[in-house]
Amino acid sequence: MSLYRTTLRRGLLDFHIGEAVPEIAFDVPRYMREMAEAGMQTLTFMTKDAFGTSYYDTRIGKKNAKLAGKDLLEEAVTEAHRNGIRLIAYYNVGLNSYVAGANPDYRQRDKDGAPVTNAFGFYDLLCLNSPYRDYVAAQLSEIAERYTVDGFFFDITYVWPSSCHCDYCRKWYVEKYGQTPPVSPPPGSADLRRWQQFQRDIRADFLRFITGRLKKLNPDLEIGWNHAGDLAFAHMEPDERADYLTSEFHPPIYLYGSLLAKWKRTKGKPFELMMPSEMGSWGEWTLAPAATLRAAAAITVSGGGSISFGHVPLPSGALKGALPSPVVEAIKEANDFIREREEWLIGASSVPDVAVLHGVHNRRMFEATSLPNHADDALNGINRMLIEGNVHFDVLSERDLVKQLGGYAVLAMPDQAYVSPEVEEAVREFVRGGGLLIATHRTSLYTEEGVRKANFGLSDVFGVDFDDTSRYSVNYMADFDKGVFASVPDMPVLVKGTNTPVLRVRPSAEARVLSVYMEPAMETKTHRHVYHQHAHPAIRTDDPAITLYPYGKGACLYLSAPLEASYWKTGSPWLRRIYMDGYKLLRPKPLIEVDAPIGVEVNLMRQASRWIVHLVQVREEKAAGSKTFMEEIWPLHNIKVRIWAKPARLYLAPQLEPLPFDEEGDGIVFTIPVLELHAMAVLEDVQG
């Protein structure tokens, strides 16, 4: 079994020091001892930094001048093995001022031909399609052949947004497409779609080339790169070549870490989230609170991944040579937390139940057109709503959905404007066979080119037909079915925060209308307005806002507003309650039901016949406009759990404390007495 499947405690030595400091002092033996004592199982160790200098005796590149007589990588390999730590070689691919200065033709260039010289505010960015790739391959091969490393981690394998128009890319574009690359392709054009695909191809071709080169040298090397399997990149094609998936996780943005885990765990590969142990981001030289590190660890491992804590020893000055002891202690505390729970974490996978579709091709369609793009807001919004609603769920790509949808009970499609015919048919068959669907706003209304169709591709499943769009920038959901939306006030609820209007739809005779729209008294302008923002609800309509429609053995809840994106933008609790009340109507008997406050995340994982219910207490809050770091954990008490499965025994882990339960039909009901940061209820030998 691979290294990344059997270990959870990792570290990233993000040692971008360069040569501006007076010296580089690094006590490697002490560092490795401390990391071993802190519980590290793998370390990703610097070999070449963002400046282009190497930290080993390279015969090809430029060795860091402040390391005369020292080979940090050789020393690290020796000391890591002595301390039982496995070593992954970090290599910064795209940033290299040394090579850029000597070879200006290797630089990435924008549409005006200007080189990218201030990437991330500081660095020279080189083209992965230029002969620089052979320099990179030679250095990586040198490391693989001369040093006993277990794998590689590549950083900055990016094509800058406006790039690359270097001579090498222009030549390759002509070879591929028979025309010169466009300078300013208009949104919605074939030229823009082709150009964006070309940018993805540059990266994919480089990763194909470099992984192939290294695997020939040693097929056992484990290779990954930053943003492999990442939502932000949505770059699925090269990630098939990665042995493990990895992304950055920056607390106190806790919800994004949860979202990454729910996406990555559906890909069939081990994954890690990399968290800077510093305040917010890399290079701040100030420790985040220990509770924040533990929270990041709990989110990651309960979601099926491993956590890698980034850290940097101080290279010079009064504290030179080592990590400050509070950093080591905080990492150890988080790793101890993981180690106590590893028996119930290693090899665990998500129990399929609720799936959320995040269409990669839908995202690309938006990026290539002028359509209002709420793909990220919709995904972030539904992630927040379902976590706050204590719902266990996974996030699937279109490719995963076609392969895996049959194992799920519920599918949510948050404003998936473009849905391929293959996915449409998979969704249709899913609902026809008894699946439950929640779809919102523009789902299936657009072609791959971003052209609006005459009707929803899934209109037969929704039970509504597209009619028109609202002419108002805000709308109000009103006249709620009181038997369904008991937690929503009996008054119109505002939908705003996006630049897409709600849709007007015509319901079929069998569709049950659960809410309609009220329009504002007027469309607000500077010369025509009421009060400070937008006009009040004034005009009743018959336009459905929410419908429920039976289809085959299943049913569809359709909401014609961009509800998830609006929730992400506004935080209106009524929008979340509308969504969750609709979910409960659609699915009155969920697989797992947790009666907990909205800050408790639920993950249901399994190892063979063992099921593990994870509860993680995490709240994202703001104080005076800034994110708040978690410093303290306040206990919650008596959290009731109902699950439709019957175990031979039930206990709390890692305490091994038996939990009493009552049988209820085909399931059980039990209470978790106390939840601090994290609790695990373990169901052994599950039947059901």
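(the above was protein one; protein two follows)
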Amino acid sequence: MDGGPRVPEQRRSGSAASAIAEPAALRFGVLGPVRAWRGGEPLNTGSPQQRALLAALLLREGRTATAAELIDALWGNEPPSQALAALRTYASRLRKILDPGVLASESGGYAVRSLGEGALDLAVAQDLAAEAEKSRSAGDLCHAREVLNRALALWDGEPLAGVPGPYADAQRVRLEEWRLQLLESRLDMDLEQGCHAEAVSELTALTAAHPLRERFRELLMLALYRSGRQAEALAVYADTRRLLAEELGVDPRPGLRELQQRILQADPALAEPSAPAAEPAAVPVRPAQLPASVPDFTGRAAFVGELSEVLASASEASAAGRVMAVSALAGIGGVGKTTLAVHVAHRARPAFPDGQLYVDLQGAGPRPAEPETVLGSFLRALGTADSAIPDSLEERAALYRSVLDGRRVLVLLDNAKDAAQVRPLLPGTEGCAALVTSRVRMLDLAGAHLVDLDVMSPDEALALFTKIVGEERVAAEREAALDVVAACGFLPLAIRIAASRLAARRTWTVSVLAAKLADERRRLDELQAGDLAVKATFELGYGQLEPAQARAFRLLGLADGPDMSLAAAAAVLDLPAEETEDLLESLVDTSLLESAAPGRYRFHDLVRLYARACAERDEQAPGEREAAMSRLLDFYLATAAGVYTIERPGDRLVDHLEPTEYPGLVFEDRHRAHDWLYSEAICLLACVRQSTRPDQLRRAVDLLWAAIDLAESGANSKEYEATGTAVRAAAQSCRDERAEARALVTLANGHHMSGRFELAGQEAAEAVRLAEVADDPLPQCWASNMLGVIALYQSRYDVGEGHLTRAIESFRSAGDRPGEASALCNLSRIHLATGRTVSAVSLAQQGTDMYDDMGHAFKGANGRYALGLALTQSGQLELAAERLEEARDLFRDSRQRLWEGMTLFRLAEVDLAARRLAQAATHAESALTLLRGIGGEWRRGNVLTALGRALSGIGQSGRAQVCLQEALAIFEALGAPEADEVRALLKPLTLA
């Protein structure tokens, strides 16, 4: 490694320069295409000749190159007539691209100076190579290999790719030679650490790419020999000797000849395995290698039937001369792939009278079984003598297929790594069949019947648990048993472990086990018994991931939502959507992640817990977990704010939200914006609940506020209120009056929508007080507006008018016209309740006009709702119906189920006033349907009253009495004054 090129001046410009380096420093790459970046932004380095000039200067180690030297470097012996002018033009263009002072002109030549630490990829590779050599000398081979791999990873294709000129040609050769030297050093250390089998495949490729490079041949011979493949090792020497003689007319170098002799002499220093004993002549055998089927196999009837049908087709294929049947089962570790495959294989044994082969390919482990090794064991099981088993994979596979020809054999390939490992092991002849299990979906296994195995259904899970624990214990605590299997995520391995622990502890009740599994922090630790452990199963899959996959797995598991969109995942990982999708799909293929729907992904519950444990254990970068969740919060807040803006143009709320650093999605269409909000509702609220750290709390509260449609629609009101309660508690704990005031606004709004007016009023009043303390005007406006509405419902009209008057003034002062329009419409209802019908109509019309001027669709519906009420009381029934129908359509379009239902109730009131009794009943019934489970009991009582009146008018007095009695019970429980009206309506029906 000492022979590598050095560029010290470019790498180290002095500690002072390093200390004041700008964040957007220049970086250059020569170990691939010649490129330049300022920070993360790529720079246009110009034409090929211009890049050739840049490369020549970067590789001069900071020294000045004369014009003549540079002309020779770019054009060699045949420069153009205007070479000097062209050179100066290239230099001038580069100077404009680079930072001031980087391209210096000296004595008619040029030099690249003042580059910061790590500015050139070649310099970074040199430092890493030196560090690796130092670690190797100190005996730390693990670190040396890791550092050397980092150095090799800096190569991005051919060095100086696409750069013309003799100088670039010479440097390309030099840099490629150095790369090969680094590879030799790293492979040498691989063998020193016993990684022989792993090195064989890489060395095979390298010897093919560089057939005359004897060091690679020598390492390959040693790797093969230490892997127990002596004949192959000697064959490498014979191939090398023949190639060198034909190509160069020389013999192998002494080191290679010496290694051949040591292999022939079985030198103990080469760690040779003991010489194989002579094997007896082969005798025909019928292998029966299937593991025992579990006696308590449960459920999976559909999968058993499907796979049995595929295997049965193998005998039909034999009769028809078709190829063998192959089924590949994929699924997460612990989902029961092996158990199912073994069960199906035993059922299918009669169809394969010539035997059944089985192998655990250890695909989830660090050292998957080599196909040639497996073929050797299969051939022995089929009666082939060791002396007749060839050395190469291709020859063994061919012999394997020949031995199986004419036989009907079932091959169970368990725990496969990938399709490449499986292909040589497939029989390939009619009458035979193969069952493959893997954590990876084998999309590239041609002709295979693919089966994705999911967790058990709740009934299957409970049945398995009962078989192991016993009917009596489960029957006595059925609910606790259901809690146990749910905590196991319906994963068969987890259920088996939990049940086995309980079965072995007669003093435990099922409830004791359920309580132990209820703690998510301890759940994975509880799910182990003997050599079975859910965590160990997941560890095998995790250990196979590439670094980028592992990082994605860890960070995505941090979010609490039931699933995650691609855009949200991109925010968590801080990667482009395309790269994120590739990573997520690769995790789906490993079965560590599930594709919930196109563009949405989810973890199994236990896998999520494991991912979080990995994040705590393996995430090395300081604050990376917190940064990932902060980006997710930013993404949701920025996107929700955009949705709010589309729905409420001109609303000032978005101007008062916490700033975000990570961008959100942008929607041009309000329907797409709504689609996003409601599809992300549960995940968004989960993000709010997770973001209660002091540095995230204000953004979390603002996200809840910006997503207020979720409460007003009624679709997610319970989750919304629970989230508001959580963030309010967090704000109290942090003593953050601003955050608490805003959380109280969201809570008060939620209570208002649910009909809990007393509680809503208390929360709104406290919000006003805290907002004044925090000098936060917007919550004061909102809470005052809400206090006015609540006072209206409580018939405290003077108090309500005072709150609404203050709200109007506050909104006007803040320049919030939508807020002002809302308060005007609410004030209209106060005027209506106090007999000021004309002014009520005027106020509602004024608010509606303001909404329409701003292009508010959803809030325009609120204005029309208020106007419809005023017009109804003023006797303008047809006009009232028109406004309310417009409001209903707008609410429906905005997915505001609560307000759509309330508008239908108001239409029923218009119909009652107009004596359209049948239509009134229809509108009231529709309102009840929409308000089922939302809006609170007070609203339900009002709708039941309207329905009772309508039914009474059309002669359905019995049904009307039932509706009115239910309404009366509601109002009496609430202590509401509406109870008196309902008693009056019931009296004639009761007397009749």
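Reviewer note on protein two: The radius of gyration is 38 Å.
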